[in-house]
Write a structure and sequence with these properties.
Number of helices: 4
Helix content: 55-70%
Shape: elongated
Radius of gyration: 26 Å
Strand order of the largest sheet: 1-2-3
Number of strands: 3
Strand content: 5-15%
Order of helices and strands: HHHHEEE
Distance between the termini: 29 Å
Largest sheet: 3 strands, antiparallel
Structural class: mainly alpha
């Protein structure tokens, strides 16, 4: 078994980096967080909803075509090989439409979740008494999703709002 090449990073250094990061966000919230909220709010609504409606309409039309195709085959107006071919084509198209719809819905949910997380962070850093003097574990848990050690002297905080902020570690 070989030893890890990364040297130990003290917990208090990570905590101090978190304090520094939050305090920087307090003073730069108008230039960092506000534009993110604005961009997220414009990222989704109208175009996605329009496309979702188009997809729903196409899915309904596809279902009607498959029903008509089944009726025609039931009355033996279509050869079974033609029915099978068209049925497969319509089914594949429906799967493609559903996949695109699901991706758009997932994207919208993600955008809403990110907006909520950024707004929560913005509310905190906008409070008059929000500047940190000491580490607050509840605050850390509320905003930080994960940590990434960049080096012995640097760490990246991956926030729940999707933002990744790098801080220098003080020794």
């Amino acid at each position: 078994i070989s030893a890890c090449s990364m040297k130990h990073i003290r917990e208090d250094a990570i905590q101090q980096a978190f304090i520094t990061m939050i305090n920087k966000l307090i003073f730069s919230r108008k230039w960092v967080l506000k534009p993110i909220i604005d961009n997220l709010k414009t990222a989704s609504p109208a175009n996605n909803r329009r496309r979702l409606k188009e997809l729903e309409t196409k899915l309904e039309e596809n279902a009607e075509r498959r029903c008509t195709l089944t009726n025609l085959a039931g009355k033996q107006y279509l050869d079974s090989s033609i029915f099978s071919s068209w049925q497969k084509e319509l089914t594949n198209y429906a799967v493609k439409l559903r996949d695109e719809r699901d991706k758009l819905l997932y994207f919208e949910q993600e955008v809403v979740a990110k907006i909520n997380e950024v707004a929560k962070l913005m509310r905190y850093v906008s409070k008059p008494d929000s500047e940190l003097d000491s580490f607050n574990e509840e605050l850390f848990d509320a905003f930080v999703d994960e940590l990434e050690v960049i080096s012995q002297t640097g760490i990246a905080f991956k926030l729940k709002c999707g933002l990744t902020l790098k801080e220098r570690l003080v020794r």
